[in-house]
Specification:
The complex is a heterotrimer of chains A (335), B (456) and C (221). By secondary structure, chain A is of the alpha/beta class. Chain A is 41% helix and 18% strand. In chain A, the strands form 2 sheets. Chain A has a 7-stranded mixed sheet with strand order 1-3-2-4-13-6-5, with helices on both faces. Helices cover 51% and strands 20% of the residues of chain B. Chain C is an alpha/beta fold and 221 residues long. Chain C has 8 helices and 13 strands. In chain C, the strands form 4 sheets. A 5-stranded parallel sheet of chain C has the order 2-1-3-6-7, with helices on both faces. A 4-stranded antiparallel sheet of chain C has the order 8-9-10-11, covered by helices on one side. Classes of the chains: A alpha/beta (335), B alpha+beta (456), C alpha/beta (221). The interface between A and B is medium-sized, with 23 and 25 residues.
Chain lengths: 335, 456, 221
């Protein structure tokens, strides 16, 4: 056992040289003998129940769970594809590009809607809408905005109240933030007007949902734009302080996606993990302990708002396109 | 003659069917490949046109701003490339010879003209892709630059579509093939039908029917039919000739014999010396034996010939027997022999009438020959328990030890001395019985006399 | 009776005619079909003896032609052909009977008698001598009105004797005419038939006289 731990530590150490892990954890099955390495952009705390429930069914497996930002997940996996069996990320565009560039294994026999899978390799398994999260206290006297249009109105009418009190992703750092931003921009011009207002009110930029919600809960900011509602919901401790709003004008729903590495040495076990994620099994057991909204449970409306897995996603990863978009975004937000 | 005597080599009908089926199979295969190629061509064309639209939309989005190139690639440029099998997409954008964006290792076709859109199928990252490349010249205030966009896409969807089309063509092809096979069989049968009809009509003919085939036949069969007709004509002529020859020969032989016999008889009337009379009698007996032998030999040959022909019809044994008895009655009367005929009303059997007549005549002839004067010959014709005719005389009967060999050719009974005969009589009866699956049985009456039973 | 013999072989024809004369028949001889046609058109015959192979044609053609003229005179065909093949066609063409060459003259006689008996009845052939009437065709002998049926050899014997009353016939001659050459009987068998015939003739005025060493003779008292 000591030897195994040593081995794991040394394994971790080797990676530590190239990447800064947000977290890494080994989940052991009851009679675990084979280990699957999962590289993910989802916080361990949120994902742990799913892994535990998988290991209950497959006690012969262990899961090594590495957490990094979605951009890091993309970079690291591209660099060392042979080191990981399963890749899970919220950055659909990057995941799609990994598949397009031939890093994935085809997992056949999963019956899935077309928009939620690509090349039988990349599978969405959650439905997480981008939402506006507010601190209830800040809106005690104000009308709570239900859409981007209403948010623009609130910010315009109360600029002083919200100066420095707005939070959003730094799209230059956050893959998910970039995805939401580009999808917003595709959907409506309203996005750019909102960005201009937010820029004029000295919006704080965050790398991740977690810290943004943290700041929201301690009153550092009053309103967070394009946060993952699921992350906010997971913080039951601050549930009474915040309110999660799904914009009624045009919702953007992100799918957390998973794929199996083509270079995996345990494709069979990895595929069974992927099948577990895409099945409705993990959504049934233990009810509330899961905070990720499963794709299987999504309503028709939510499904329609989902960002489809299609080659178009790769457009925004184009160097020139990204340069143009970031320039525009910076012009709007950083004044 | 049965078909087993014929040296068979293949079947015209089968050969025709096989040739037609082979032709159809070749046509089906050929059309399969032609259609499949055509479908592939169209599928590639439609992929090309989508890729070209995508390339065009990228090039259209390119602009020179402040001396640098900006390309705001429209979302549609890639989303239009979505296929049912989620084909992979690779692209690269060049400014002159520098990679601006995209997959740097995706090379451009070398012999490409700047003004034209280039299409090619190539291998990229170990997979087969279809690549479309096009260029656009951007002209700024003081600069001129060429932007080249190239998009490559895998062909899974194309292959799927092709597989599906191929499968459909194959199904239609097989259907067409099956239909054509049925048609070929029908056509072959229809083509062969006149030949079969001709064969049937020739086979149905009676053995004596050597008339030419009169029914109309297709042109292709004219040589066959005309040589068949010609052959039959020659056969008929030659048969007629030999028949006439036999008749002529018999005439030539028998007429002088008849003359000699008549003269001998006449002489006998005038000669008184006993030894001369004996000599003349022997002479007449010898003449009779000669002519009788000749007659029976001819009869026997005729019977052997007819027994092979199986020209069987339904005949009444009673009627035949009555006819023969009537003809022989004058001869019987000469010896004061009475012929008694006991028969059923009618006894029908299937056989060759001439053969049966001959056998019956020989039976009665024999009985007459061996009957003493003032005796009775009894003839029974019955259908129960089997169809039979029994002829019984009051002559000396058979010797027990010779009964088995009597029906052999040229064997005469020991009691036949002084009786004219060639020994072929019973042989003829036996041969006729054999030709009709019947039997001849010889026996002696307890009260004396021979009994011969011919049963069928 | 009047017979027409159509036969191209003159020797044979002569022999046949001689025998027929012995039996009391008149025979005209035609050596070709054209002769036969000429004869048959001018004279009514009681019987035709027809050879098949003739120098100027086939006897069967003549037969056909003859029957086509609605003549029902009995025809006996003399043929040298096989008994099997020609029998049917000849009878079909209207021949009443046939004999195959060479033939026993007695057989020809018997057949002639049988055919005549079948065809023509007996009125014209009846011979009347003294108190008897003899019909050789029917084989009937009537003495003062009572009819006696004669057996064949008795009839033949009587026929021979009655054709030449008063003539002496030797035993041998009678034997030759009564028996075929294959009959294994001795010449003494004649005495049996003479005896039978004498018995039949008892009621009449005719008697058969035995001339010892010479033969027999029919006498009328």
């Amino acid at each position: 056992m000591r030897y195994l731990i040593l081995l794991i530590i040394s394994l971790f150490a080797s990676h530590a040289n190239s990447i800064e892990w947000e977290d890494k954890q080994l989940f052991e099955g009851a009679i675990g003998s084979q280990t699957i390495s999962v590289i993910s952009s989802t916080d361990t705390a949120i994902f742990a129940p799913i892994i535990t429930s998988f290991l209950t069914i497959n006690p012969e497996l262990n899961i090594n769970y590495y957490v990094a930002s979605s951009a890091d997940v993309y970079e690291e996996f591209q660099r060392n594809p042979q080191d990981y069996d399963v890749v899970i990320s919220s950055a659909m565009d990057l995941q799609l590009k990994l598949v397009n560039d031939g890093f994935s294994a085809r997992i056949e026999g999963i019956s899935y809607p077309d928009w939620a899978q690509w090349r039988e390799s990349l599978f969405g398994f959650t439905m997480e809408p981008a939402s506006i999260v507010i601190n209830k206290k800040a809106f005690e006297t104000l009308k709570v905005p239900r859409s981007r249009q209403e948010m623009i109105r609130v910010l315009r009418t109360n600029p002083e109240l919200f100066r420095g009190k707005i939070g959003s992703y730094d799209v230059r750092q956050s893959g998910l933030g970039y995805l939401f931003a580009t999808q917003d921009a595709r959907a409506s011009e309203t996005y750019w007007r909102l960005m201009e207002i937010m820029g004029s009110l000295e919006t704080r930029l965050y790398c991740c949902s977690g810290s943004m919600i943290e700041d929201l809960s301690n009153n550092t900011i009053s309103i967070a734009y394009n946060v993952l509602g699921s992350y906010a919901q997971a913080r039951t401790d601050i549930a009474d302080k915040i309110e999660i709003i799904l914009p009624s004008d045009f919702p953007n729903t992100m799918m957390r996606t998973a794929m199996v590495s083509k270079h995996s040495l345990s494709i069979r076990s990895s595929a069974s993990f992927l099948r577990f994620l895409t099945s409705s099994e993990w959504t049934k057991a233990e009810g509330d302990s899961y905070h990720l909204p499963p794709l299987q449970a999504a309503s028709q409306n939510e499904q329609r708002s989902a960002i489809a897995l299609e080659p178009g996603l790769m457009i925004f990863l184009d160097k020139l396109k990204r340069k143009t978009f970031i320039k525009e975004w910076e012009n709007a937000l950083i004044q | 003659m049965s078909t087993s005597d014929v040296n068979v080599y293949g079947s015209l009908r089968n050969r025709l069917v096989m040739t037609l089926i082979g032709g159809v199979a070749m046509l089906t295969l050929l059309s399969y490949f032609v259609i499949r190629n055509y479908a592939a061509h169209i599928a590639v064309q439609s992929q090309d046109s989508i890729l070209r639209a995508s390339v065009t939309s990228i090039l259209d989005a390119a602009a020179l701003r402040d001396g640098s190139v900006e390309i705001d690639i429209p979302y549609a440029a890639f989303s239009m490339l979505g296929t049912t099998t989620d084909d992979r997409v690779f692209y690269v954008i060049y400014q002159d010879d520098l990679v601006l964006s995209g997959y740097e290792d995706l090379s451009l076709p070398k012999d490409r003209s700047v003004t034209e859109t280039a299409y090619r199928s190539t291998i990229y990252r170990d997979v087969a892709v279809r690549q479309v490349s096009a260029s656009r010249t951007l002209i700024g205030a003081d600069q001129r630059t060429i932007i080249t966009a190239s998009i490559a896409q895998t062909q899974d969807s194309l292959d799927d579509a092709l597989d599906e089309i191929s499968e459909n063509i194959a199904i239609y092809g097989i259907g067409f093939f099956c239909l054509a096979v049925l048609l070929s069989i029908w056509v072959s049968s229809a083509t062969i039908a006149p030949l079969k009809r001709l064969a049937d009509s020739v086979a149905r003919r009676g053995p004596q029917d050597l008339s030419p085939v009169a029914k109309p036949v297709p042109t292709e069969m004219v040589p066959l039919v005309s040589s068949l007709n010609h052959f039959m004509e020659r056969l008929e002529r030659s048969l007629k000739q030999s028949e006439e020859f036999i008749a002529e020969a018999a005439h030539r032989v028998r007429t002088p014999i008849a003359t000699v016999r008549s003269h001998a008889e006449m002489t006998l009337q005038r000669v008184d010396k006993e030894e001369n009379r004996q000599a003349l009698r022997s002479m007449i007996r010898a003449i009779d034996e000669t002519s009788r032998a000749a007659g029976q030999l001819l009869d026997h040959a005729m019977i052997s010939f007819r027994a092979d022909q199986h020209d069987y019809v339904s005949i009444d044994l009673v009627e035949i027997t009555e006819d023969i008895v009537m003809r022989l009655r004058p001869v019987a009367e000469m010896k004061d022999v009475t012929i008694q005929l006991n028969t059923d009303a009618e006894v029908i059997l299937l056989g060759d009438s001439i053969l049966i007549q001959n056998a019956v005549r020989n039976l009665i002839d024999n009985a007459l020959k061996y009957s003493p004067s003032d005796s009775v010959i009894t003839i029974e014709v019955r259908k129960q328990p089997v169809t039979f005719i029994a002829v019984q005389d009051q002559g000396p009967g058979f010797q027990t030890h010779e009964m088995a060999s009597l029906t052999d050719r040229f064997t005469r009974g020991e009691n036949a001395s002084g009786t004219i005969g060639s020994g072929l009589g019973l042989t003829i009866v036996r041969d006729v019985a054999k030709a009709h699956d019947g039997a001849v049985e010889l026996s002696n009456n307890p009260s004396g006399g021979a009994c011969v039973t011919l049963s069928f | 009776m009047k017979f027409l013999l159509i036969e191209d072989n003159e020797d044979l024809a002569h022999a046949i005619a001689t025998r027929m004369n012995l039996d009391g028949h008149v025979v005209d001889h035609a050596i070709s079909l054209s002769d036969a046609k000429a004869f048959s058109e001018t004279v009514d015959y009681d019987l035709l003896l027809l050879d098949i192979m003739l120098p100027d044609g086939d006897g069967r053609d003549f037969l056909e032609h003859f029957r086509a003229l609605k003549k029902d005179t009995p025809v006996i065909v003399l043929t040298a052909r096989s008994q099997v093949s020609d029998r049917v066609s000849m009878l079909d063409l209207g021949a009443d009977d046939y004999v195959t060459k060479p033939f026993d003259h007695e057989e020809l006689q018997a057949r002639c008698r049988a055919v005549l008996r079948r065809k023509s009845g007996s009125t014209q052939t009846t011979v009347r001598i003294a108190d008897i009437e003899f019909d050789p065709v029917a084989g009937q002998l009537s003495i003062s009105g009572s009819v006696i049926k004669l057996r064949n050899r008795e009839l033949r014997l009587l026929e021979i004797l009655i054709n030449s009353p008063g003539k002496v016939f030797s035993k041998q001659k009678l034997f030759d005419r009564l028996f075929s050459y294959d009959d294994e009987v001795s010449e003494n068998a004649i005495e049996v038939y003479i005896g039978r015939l004498r018995k039949h003739l008892e009621p009449s005025t005719l008697t058969i006289t035995t001339l010892r060493g010479l033969g027999y003779r029919l006498d009328e008292h």
